Amino acid sequence: MNGAIQPSPVPFYTVIIFYLGIMAFIGWYASRKTSSLGDFFVLSGKAGVVVSGIAYFSTQFSMGTFLGTPGTIYGVGYAGMAISVPGAVFCMILPALLIGRKLITLGHKYGFLTMADYLSDRYHSKSMSGVLGVMMLFFLIPMMGAQIIGAGVIVHVFTGLPEWAGVVGMGVIVILYCMAGGMKGAMMTDVIQGSLMIATAVVTFIVSIVMGGGFENINHTLQGMNEAYLTFPGANGYMPWTYFVSNIVLWSFFTMGQPHLFTKFFAMKDHKTMFKAILLGTAGMFFSATLIEWAGVNGIASIQNIEKADQIVPMILQRGLNPFLASIFIAGIVAAGMSTIDGILVTTTGAVTRDIYQKIINKKATDENVMNLSKVVTVLIGIIVICFGVFQPGSIFEINLFAFSGMAIFVVPILFGMYWKKSTVAGAVSSVVVGVIALLVFTLVPSVKELAHGFHALFPATILGSVTMLVVSSMTQAPPQETIERHFAVFEK
């Protein structure tokens, strides 16, 4: 079956407009319930089990999971499923065990709203807010851009319109409901979006099996096309064991460095809520990731010659279902992108308005000033993201991976800050600077990249960042004893 696009715009517009209308209504409703900075950024620490669990996994999963990853797997075969499925099992468990319990306690006790609140308080320095804010603008804008690129792909497949039309449309909707309702709007919509994402994964998987004529026929077809589709390391040797291990660690351990996921712990009601949310979120992540990625493999057997690999999941739904049903489940992929953008957009807005403006530029700014500025900044960042999506500097998966890896460097100051009393602000800032430079060098310079021996560039970058933290902290003055007491004594009672 060839991959020529066969637009069905009327059913698509009908369903998507209805869906986006619901999201807009939720944003409006949330704005009426949002009266403070605590409400805007972390729901005042009152999120329950269902909201916490689904919001975490739906923010973690994105267009990368539902378009970019299946698109990459479409060119690799079964081995490509190792990109995120193993890591999905642990991507909420490890952060919860290592930092979640501490963050809930500290957040409720000291009123932390963002990652910068924690880092600047732990290291007794506002400079941490500035470093994090700049890093978030540099890496999280591309991450949001990857999501709306996915919206462009979907609109193109279902309507034949140019991809920029979907990019602009999705960007405007998300800006509006985040500007209005902040984290309350984001997390309320995440519950609907997360549920839709699971349904989309199930349906896409079933449709891909039917289109391929069943598992036996799919595997027989794949074997005839290229036996490498059925084995490790996959077509073109994509998944050697070093890259396999890298992906497991990347998508589980390093989620701790993502500000939009880190902040979710501050929103949780208590420790009991967190552990129940882990069970719910982990089940949702593992189940949906497995099925949607497997659908990417199945699609190899039934759809060929598509314009770009990122189109494979929309094409499966378009070819295998009637237009209205296909549009309903494609809304689940739109949900995957929106749920990631809204969480990141609110978090990035917080970085600019609270972490840079209120704490560094204008220390006299009131919470009301910050609330008003947050709405303006949300629009400005959203416009930059839309421009990024229109120009599309790379594939969804490549952009997502780059942005995720950049923010992951913050795992070093976070973990050292929580578990080593002698960590200093000089050590923390130096570890981030060295880590990011090392990440870029190991990614972009072929001769240096070889020194990683097949592991992801984030591995050597994190090692170098950790060594820098140890060395610089040992040579510089630790934070005041009062600060150390605030962050450690509460857990020693």
Q: What is the first-to-last residue Cα distance? A: 66 Å
* Order of secondary-structure elements: HHHHHHHHHHHHHHHHHHHHHHH
By DSSP, the count of extended strands is: 0
* Structure classification: mainly alpha
Characterize the largest beta sheet: strand count, sense, and whether it forms a barrel. Answer: none
Q: Can you describe this structure?
A:
Helix 6 packs antiparallel against helix 14 and helix 8 packs across helix 9. The protein contains 23 helices and no strands. With 493 residues, the protein is an all-alpha fold. 76% of the residues lie in helices and 0% in strands.
Summarize the structure.
The protein has helices at 9-33, 37-42, 49-60, 63-73, 85-90, 93-110, 115-122, 127-159, 163-212, 215-225, 241-250, 259-262, 264-267, 271-302, 312-320, 323-361, 367-391, 396-408, 411-419, 425-444, 446-449, 458-475, 481-488.
Question: What secondary-structure arrangement, pairings included, does this model have?
Answer:
Blueprint: H1 9-33, H2 37-42, H3 49-60, H4 63-73, H5 85-90, H6 93-110, H7 115-122, H8 127-159, H9 163-212, H10 215-225, H11 241-250, H12 259-262, H13 264-267, H14 271-302, H15 312-320, H16 323-361, H17 367-391, H18 396-408, H19 411-419, H20 425-444, H21 446-449, H22 458-475, H23 481-488
